[in-house]
Amino acid sequence: MEGVIGDQMKQGIIPRIVNDIFNHIYAMEENLEFHIKVSYFEIYMDKIRDLLDVSKVNLSVHEDKNRVPFVKGATERFVSSPEEVFEVIEEGKANRHIAVTNMNEHSSRSHSVFLINVKQENLENEKKLSGKLYLVDLAGSEKVSKTGAEGTVLDEAKNINKSLSALGNVISALADGNKTHIPYRDSKLTRILQESLGGNARTTIIICCSPASFNESETKSTLDFGRRAKTIKNVVTVNEELTAEEWKRRYEKEKEKVGRLKGKLEKLETELNRWRGGETVNPEEQVNFQEPVEAVTPVTSTTEIIKQALPVPASPGIMLGSLSNEERQKLEEERERLYLQLDDKDEEINQQSQYIEKLKEQMLEQEELIASTRRDYELLQQEMIRITQENESAKEEVKEVLQALEELAVNYDQKSQEADTKSKENESLTEELLSKQSALNSTSVELQQLKDMSTHQRKRITEMLTNLLKDLSGIGVAIGGGDNEIKVSADSNGKLEEEFTVARLYISKMKSEVKNLVQRCQGLETHQVDSNKKISEYEKDLAECRLLVSQHEARMKSLQESMRETENKKRTLEEKLDLLREECAKMKAAEQVHAASSKEKAEERKNEATMRVALEQQMDQLRDTYQKQIAQLRDEIAEKQELINTVKDENQKYTLAHQQLQQDYEKLKQEEMEKSNKLQELMLTVERREQARKDLKGLEDTVAKELQTLHNLRKLFVQDLQARIKKSVNAEDEDDGGSLAQKQKISFLENNLDQLTKVHKQLVRDNADLRCELPKLEKRLRATMERVKALETALKEAKEGAMRDRKRYQYEVDRIKEAVRQKNLARRGPSAQIAKPIRAGQHHVLSGGGQARPTPIISPSKNISDEEMRKRKAISNES
What we know:
By secondary structure, the protein is an alpha+beta fold. The protein has helices at 13-26, 82-94, 144-147, 152-176, 188-192, 194-198, 216-230, 244-276, 300-309, 325-441, 447-480, 496-597, 602-727, 736-828, 866-878; strands spanning 32-44, 47-50, 60-63, 69-72, 77-79, 98-99, 107-108, 111-122, 128-137, 240-241, 838-839. Keywords: ATP-binding, Coiled coil, Cytoplasm, Cytoskeleton, Microtubule, Motor protein, Nucleotide-binding.
């Protein structure tokens, strides 16, 4: 409605209408004077609340003498420029009820009504016109499932939807046209807008709807509401206040009309009497009913004045039921008295409602205290539940570790069985190799070819060894750092045995490093288990200390109550003692009086002496008993004080122990943080180990391929030898020197093959160890992921709690603002309003000395004359 006030492009309907009104006034004749009043109120929770004076909380709706509803007690401000109107709007906007929902960050929680009352007076002929412009901002209909309203916001939404449904019922009844009863009194909104909806007014409704499919049902119902409202037709008349001369002129006019009607009535009576007498009346003498008679004015006050001024003569044939002046005056007095009683009752209702509002505020404060205590209790319960859950999770982790160890043992057994089978296969292969070597001893012809083949195989083996050593050096770098690199000799004719020994040493070093890492991981796990046990023990001690503290506090309370009881007993005994002393003093005074007056009566004196002695004895006995009781009470008080001191000392000890436990708990937390950091480092090492495992797997594949190629070459070599042996059965034997060289080369190849098989077995064992550690690390990773998920859920809950706290904080801020405004207004007190007349034809003077430029804007109006509407249309057409 307001938009951005001061911006010509982004300003809303209200600023445009205000500028249009004042520009129209400035463009009119100078002999016209205007008085403009504005008021601003809202309908919140079905209660009318003044936005310009927040102390007026529950205003009532009354009717004036013309049966037009108005809000009684609403603050009215006289304004003389658009800037003053905008200041009033800003002041009212600051007091409106606004809340945050899922669909709107600044959702209005009430219907606001901005009323502009304009009075025009012609200084020349004293003609007066008046009109009211209601600018109503209706709160939108809400669905709780979409807005997520709860608590006070939900109650506000209920009242908003209730008033909007009442407005829809009124518009439906007005659009029907056949209904005699319009339910204006179902809601205060429809009661205030009674004249605007179905009275002397022109109404403009602006509908705000959404094109999104998400809001399809709301958009359809809103458009149906607007379609029904378009069918309502109102008859509009000008609100004109007549002067005395105008009233006199109208009175004379009505008087002449009544005289003419009176003469016609007399003629009709004479004609009727003639007809009744049996005469026939000629058509020329008959009264003509077609004579033009001026229409009676609709103003009820003039007709009443005419009826009071001109009594109609009673004829014998016509009965006229008119009231006398005295009866009418009595009725008017009775009506005024009833109106006064209604006003008094409304004021009483307003006072009662204000008292009820105060009681409700007190109840809300008490409920807030109860809710805060409940929240604290729930937080403590949640903390206890969280601690128990952590304990359970620690137990589950221990179980998982035990299961992982069992799985490791099973995997170790399986791998050992696989190693035995592989060793058996290797032995069978060696036996075959021995048989082939025996066959080689018999070969003598193909020695040169064997020499060439052995050199070729030697080259290939050296290349394989160099590649293998390079891969091992890369794995060592990945596991232990960059210091453990293997230097591969470039000389292919070097000693292969030295290279194999270097590879063996490096592999043993890698194995020791892996074992050290595993031992470190196990040590950290055992340390973590011990720390968890310590934390659980400390928590148990803390709970026991809390129980002891609560027991001692209860004991102190009981001791304090017993002390209070003893003090009360002491006070009662002292009061009784004072009463007895007063009685003794009175008795002594009476004795003195009797002693002075009874000198002549010795017997009475003796009796009085005996009585006095008896009373003194009784007083002594009572004094002794009271002193004993006081001494006992003092002893009891001393004992109770000693008990209190001992309890205080014990309480201080327990508080110190509690503080010590808290410090230990903080230390354990720090240790747990350090362990989590170490766990992250271990995770990094595990990732490196996983990468090394992948590299080892690739290396195993390459070694297996090379072994397969060697096996194939051996088969080919054996087949070739067998074929050549068959061919060279009749060949001559070679000399023994060549056979010896061949045997040496074969033994060298056998040694190399044994070393390669040993390296392969070692790599297989290392791979098995890494695979055994893999499930354990995966379980740790799963535990960390679950912990991350739990932290994410906790973060989400914390965000939701922050949103709720934000809403609660906004509500408290609004309540405090309202209380501060009420206090300020109570200090300020009621002040009189000064009318600021506006002279037409003169622009409003700004603070800088200039004049505001008129910007004609077409806007909807209410209760304004047709002449003004025509002038506005002419101005808009010219612009």
